[in-house]
Known about the structure:
Helix content: under 10%
Structural class: mainly beta
Number of helices: 2
Oligomer: single chain
Largest sheet: 7 strands, antiparallel
CATH superfamily of the largest domain: Galactose-binding domain-like
Number of strands: 46
Shape: elongated
CATH architecture of the largest domain: Sandwich
Amino acid sequence: MRKLYSIFILSFLLTQFNFGQILNGNLEGWTSGSPDSWYMDSGITITQENTIIHGGSASANVEVTTTTQASTDFYQTTVNVNAGAPYTLHAWVYHTEGNIKARLVADGIYGTYSNNTLTGSWQEITFNFNPSSSIITIGLRFYDQPGFDGSEIVYVDDIFFSGGEPTEPSAETGSAINISATSATLTGTVTDNGANTNITFEWGTSAGVYTSSGDADPASIVAGAGTTSVTKFLDGLTTGFTYYYRVYATNSVGTTYGIEKSFVATDPPVNLVISEIMQNPSDVSDNAGEWFEIYNPETFDVNIDGYTIKDNGSNSHLIDNGGSLIIPAGGFIVLGINSDATSNGGLTVDYQYSGFTLANADDEVILIYTDGTTVIDEVWYDGGTNFPDPTGASMYLTNLTLDNNTGANWATATVREGTYDASGSDYGSPGAIGTEAVYPVELTSFTAITMTKGIMLNWSTATEVNNYGFEIERSSTSLGTIDPSRAETREWEKIGFVEGHGNSNSPNDYSYLDNSKIFGEVSYRLKQIDTDGAFEYSDVVTVTSKTLAKYELYQNYPNPFNPSTVVSFTLPEMSHVKIAVYNVIGQEVAKLVDKEMEAGFHNITFDGSNLSTGLYIYRLETPNYSKTMKMILLR
Length: 635
């Protein structure tokens, strides 16, 4: 029975205090000298005014008596709104001396100021906003200006909303990304504007004619979701065709179409590297044992079927594998004049070419894209002038990140490995990274930046070989740092892992957001780990996380509670903080804190043992931020 009674009380409280509008916005209702439904801070005094009025028979005489701005709010809580819909908050103010400004506040956002130099007459101030939730706080805050002598009156009247009805959604067509010969991903952004919204992409191969359509991802958003990024993956496209597309969004009010954009379905040119050449084998003749190797530094597989290999003379071969010829991401492929391992010197060849030789008067290997003109890579070796010219061994690029058209970057192989078998004596490492090569993970930058949501770590690599990934390690003054300037005295903890790109000859960018609630000096380092388990540490970067957290008041926990609960909040800087608890008629029943507090994450315990069951309001006030939330004491 007690449980059923508690559930009834909870339901009753949530229903009774679900205010549906700005109550007493015309300030005509007063009880015992106070405006009905309005709250006021300790730094202002409110009395009824019946002479200087904007409309009706009464206004509010607001006397500001402090320079502490966090104590000058005139506000109303638990105002029900249509989340996401466009609103305008209006208020009329009347300045007497011009040393105080009034500012509208809605949904925790501080908006328009009044013109304090316009004295002796009424002025309207307005503030446009889209509420992020269905229950918000609205009101005014008063700011002292030069010349304020400690007491000044501002009259306030007729506070009200306009708008609030849902409008047609907003839709903006974005770019097509990850384009290939047969697929692409469409992007866009949609804003709900106060109503549940469905989102669709449409596309076709003629401008303005859309023969296909499909749900976006996500296919719908709820009222109040705000601006949302959406995508649509297209597959089965026709290579070489131009596709026209747009996003559109529909809610209960209407449909909005984004502008039309287009893309061409084609594979983009890629980065491939000619990395090893065997032009003079000893175990067999040149026309039986020549081969060369191509490395793929991309993070995706590359199909070279339809490419052309040629020299600068008359030799040329169109690669025709009867289907795909794939170089795996971070991997190698071997092309040879002879694919028979029993007669080519004992190696495995992935593709056999013809009409093209390496040891002739034209010492070049040129790789041409499928369009027949775009050069993907080329090596102009010269028979020994600047490049090696070994016999019985390949020449290899000593580092996959180096310019392969510079002879000094090549060396002669002295080990037989890779796909070579044990039957011969020629040296080389076809289809693999040779043990003689040095291919490091080259870290080019590592930075840490404090942001509202945390500390963002960004780093970049110029090259990667066998890079398994990066462990992110953190050390802070709260984790036992002995000497912040010396990494070896720190206590480090692993906080995350970011996967590497394996093998890459092109720059790669990485990021990691540390959203832990840590304040003060924080240091980070990267532990780069190879696929074989070897690792190396980066240099240390250090930041001071003064602005790690934003101002925020969180929902108390537990809620409902009996008899105590915890109120949590964050401060990005040292601030004077006041947290008070009020009953539903605006009377202060408890003051949890009223003092200067350090930046950081704070917990305050509230004991409601001396209070009766009911709904209570708790409010955080600082000079730059205020927020009100509800709690329920349920005995």
